[in-house]
Amino acid sequence: MKFLKCISFNEDLDIIDVESTFTRGIPNLTIVGLANTAIKESVERIKASLVTCNFAFPSKKITINLSPSGIPKKGSHFDLVIAILILLQNENLDDFFVVGELGLDGSVKSTNELFSLLLFLSAKIKKARVIVPKSIASKASMIPNLEIYGIEHISDAVEFFKEKQYEKFRFKELHPLFKNSFSLNGEIYIRNEIFEYDFKDIKGQKQAKRACLIAALGMHNILFEGSPGSGKTMCAKRLVYIMPPQSLDEILIQSAYKSLYSKDCDLNQTRIFRNPHHTSTRASIFGGGANGARIGEIALANRGVLFFDEFPHFSKQIIESLREPLEDCKIHISRVNSKMSYETKFIFAAALNPCPCGNLFSKNLSCVCGDNEIKRYKNKISWPILDRIDLYVAMDEIDVNDKADLSSKQMNDMIFDAFLFQKKRGQKEFNGKLQDEDLKKFCILDDEAKEILDKATLRYNLSQRGVNKTLKVARSCADLAKSEIILKNHVLEALSFRMRG
């Protein structure tokens, strides 16, 4: 029995051992192991390809097993590995992942999902040798953790395994993104150096910028409320440029998720920003669809920013469906033929007007909305959703004397220093995404800070979630001040950004 490895993507990336046996009997090729139609059709493609290329098809009963047998497999990229096992039944095969579709002329072709599979593989396995179609070998070689070998024709595959001159087919390219990487606690990080949108463009709004600084450092959810044109959207769009450096795993997972959506993508030093329109369907935001569990905006925003502008204008169903992704940092999509789980660790940023006309906070313009109209507008967002918001910012009204102060580069530097301070204490997760059991370990309060928090809990009737959110924000405030202990002023600042019902 011979075997090589392949990959398939269902609920998770599955490593598939492709095994072959040759026994006496009527010549036949059978594929077992829950293979879908595309894989079963490979029988005829492989036969035609081998005959066209003058390879003798074995006159034996051939059984190909895709193991583990209980996991459904899909994709035409199993063609190449099956053909190699048939042609090289008497050879000693080294351990490789093999992916590629066969043409009837023996050529090795790429598929739509292949690059996505390679990205997921690189995120799951630290070192893997992979044989891919030559057409994508150059691009695939830029993915870290993978040794890429490019094959153009089935005859190249035979030469590759028979002569074992692997370096002849090896593709080596370092992605430009990793030339300026740095290592920290055994992890590789890439710092953003692109500032397409700059906080310097926003005049005034010191409180909002401070909130953005805290939100970006700790990946805290943030809500902007203010008059039209006060800078709510401008602040939200600039968050990704000041966020902490991305780790190698974060970049790979982000690119892998994006590739599921667009089928082709590149590695990026800037975190992802997703901004769905309020008319978007629930399936487009949370994922799903009639034919399968397709990825949605919620998962695409992972490790970046998901921004809902005109928040109350989103449907009630969409707003209420945010509860689980914001709380559990995961989303599960179930359909008849597929089930998928995606990570949803992102900054949820939202913007809304204080009333339907937007002039309620204005000192110069009159609000034309009635009390009931304002109440209906605000009631579109339930308290359980607001309780999941870490930072609430009431935007200042524009003033002619407002001046620009901090730039995105300066804010990024401040966050980078706080990020290094955070990592020195051994914390792996962002403050805003800490699990409850980690709070006692990383969110240590002095006596005064604890007393303030206890009084605020009683006075403002904070829920347990609200207390934990306050602790996490205070931890980010302390990190910006490079304080190992959370002090009174850090708790007070966190409480000042807490929305109260």
UniProtKB/TrEMBL annotation:
InterPro entries membership: AAA+_ATPase, CHLI-like, Mg_chelat-rel, Mg_chelat-rel_C, Mg_chelatse_chII-like_cat_dom, P-loop_NTPase, Ribosomal_Su5_D2-typ_SF, Ribsml_uS5_D2-typ_fold_subgr
Keywords noted in UniProt: ATP-binding, Nucleotide-binding
Protein name: ATP-binding protein
PANTHER family according to UniProt: COMPETENCE PROTEIN COMM (PTHR32039:SF7), MAGNESIUM-CHELATASE SUBUNIT CHLI (PTHR32039)
Entry-linked SMART domains: AAA
GO molecular function, one term: ATP binding
Domain AAA+ ATPase: 218-378
Domain of life: Bacteria
Family to which this protein belongs: Belongs to the Mg-chelatase subunits D/I family. ComM subfamily.
The organism of origin for this protein: Campylobacter novaezeelandiae
